[in-house]
């Protein structure tokens, strides 16, 4: 029986691992497949990358049951959310706001001190 060859590829750094799992999740989304760790790992391996197994598990848990399309398009998933409306202030509140005096804040400038940097910028 043939023994499987040991994977000698170096493990990708954190940023590369996250990007690889993100792209793998997008591929699965576009193919209308469930996102799970084994499918993510297969796609990452097909891309000739090696990531820590924790990354595929993290992405599986983070995206399980989520609507990826809503995440991509910025929708929070709340279909029944009401539009935001601007309210106007009552005349009493507007009058009170007018009567408040405007305070000017003056910035006090402190003189700069020469600090010896030990010849660092000479």
UniProtKB/TrEMBL annotation:
<keyword id="KW-0689">Ribosomal protein</keyword>
<dbReference type="GO" id="GO:0002181">
    <property type="term" value="P:cytoplasmic translation"/>
</dbReference>
<feature type="compositionally biased region" description="Low complexity">
    <location>
        <begin position="82"/>
        <end position="94"/>
    </location>
</feature>
<feature type="region of interest" description="Disordered">
    <location>
        <begin position="74"/>
        <end position="122"/>
    </location>
</feature>
<keyword id="KW-0687">Ribonucleoprotein</keyword>
<dbReference type="GO" id="GO:0022625">
    <property type="term" value="C:cytosolic large ribosomal subunit"/>
</dbReference>
<dbReference type="Pfam" id="PF00428">
    <property type="entry name" value="Ribosomal_60s"/>
</dbReference>
<protein>
    <recommendedName>
        <fullName>60S acidic ribosomal protein P1</fullName>
    </recommendedName>
</protein>
<dbReference type="InterPro" id="IPR027534">
    <property type="entry name" value="Ribosomal_P1/P2"/>
</dbReference>
<dbReference type="GO" id="GO:0006414">
    <property type="term" value="P:translational elongation"/>
</dbReference>
<feature type="compositionally biased region" description="Basic and acidic residues">
    <location>
        <begin position="95"/>
        <end position="109"/>
    </location>
</feature>
<dbReference type="GO" id="GO:0003735">
    <property type="term" value="F:structural constituent of ribosome"/>
</dbReference>
<dbReference type="GO" id="GO:0030295">
    <property type="term" value="F:protein kinase activator activity"/>
</dbReference>
<dbReference type="GO" id="GO:0043021">
    <property type="term" value="F:ribonucleoprotein complex binding"/>
</dbReference>
<comment type="similarity">
    <text>Belongs to the eukaryotic ribosomal protein P1/P2 family.</text>
</comment>
């Amino acid at each position: 029986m043939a023994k499987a060859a040991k994977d000698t590829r170096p493990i990708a750094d954190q940023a590369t691992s996250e990007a690889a799992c993100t792209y793998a999740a997008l591929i699965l989304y576009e193919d209308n497949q469930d996102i799970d760790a084994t499918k993510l790992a297969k796609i990452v391996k097909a891309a000739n990358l090696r990531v820590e197994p924790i990354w595929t598990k993290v992405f599986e848990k983070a995206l399980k049951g989520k609507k990826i399309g809503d995440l991509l398009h910025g929708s929070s998933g709340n279909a029944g959310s009401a539009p935001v409306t601007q309210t106007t202030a009552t005349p009493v509140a507007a009058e009170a706001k007018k009567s408040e005096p405007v305070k000017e804040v003056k910035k006090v400038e402190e003189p700069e001190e020469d600090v010896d940097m030990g010849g660092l910028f000479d």
